[in-house]
Amino acid sequence: MEVIYTMHQLNRAEEPVMELAQAYVRPQPLDGVFSPEEGLRHGTAFPNLYMPYVANNVATSLAEVSVPASDRCRLLDTITKLDFMALDLQLYLNTNPSDQNAIEMYNSCIAGSQAAREKYEANYGPLTAFRSEGATCDQTGQWAWNSGPWPWQAEFFTDMEGK
């Protein structure tokens, strides 16, 4: 007969406590990192974790995507790449909290992304309604988050060019 324990029973001292699960995290050395562009393209910041998808014995990866030449697009591209790298480094630091080199790289990505985000919002408006300081009101003090253009509209890339 199978015994099923409730959480209350598992927490009581007089009941036997059984181990329900155990996590295993493979040690990951910091053997260098990709550039932010390469990391985003490969889906990881770490070359030792990159495993390309193989179909029909042909290794494939994301195709090179050219970024439009506008400053607006370059800033969005920079923010995306640096945020990706910061997230991947954060995951690494969860299991390697004393790696000073990784901490420095993480802080550098955060600072670079924040600078690009501030420049973008100063020139083109808010990226998000949340945590976009001062970017949610227009010059008249009115709520302006819902004013366009939106990224899925064609005007998004042309409406504010040259600003």
Physical arrangement of strands within the biggest beta sheet? 1-2
Strand element count: 2
Element pattern in H and E: HHEEHHH
Largest sheet: 2 strands, antiparallel
Low-confidence stretches: 58-64, 159-163
Helix share of residues?
40-55%
What does this structure look like?
The chain has 5 helices and 2 strands; from the N terminus they run H-H-E-E-H-H-H. The chain has a two-stranded antiparallel ribbon. It has helices spanning 7-11, 36-42, 71-95, 100-124, 155-158, and strands at residues 53-55, 58-60. Mean pLDDT is 75; it is low at 58-64 and 159-163. It has 163 residues and is mainly α. The protein has a domain at 31-48 and 68-129 and 136-158. It is elongated.
Quick tags:
163 residues; mainly alpha; two-stranded antiparallel sheet
Short summary of the structure?
The protein is mostly helical. Helix content is 40%, strand content 4%.
Topology:
Elements: H1 7-11, H2 36-42, E1 53-55, E2 58-60, H3 71-95, H4 100-124, H5 155-158
Antiparallel strand pairs: 1-2
Helix pairs in contact: 2-3, 3-4
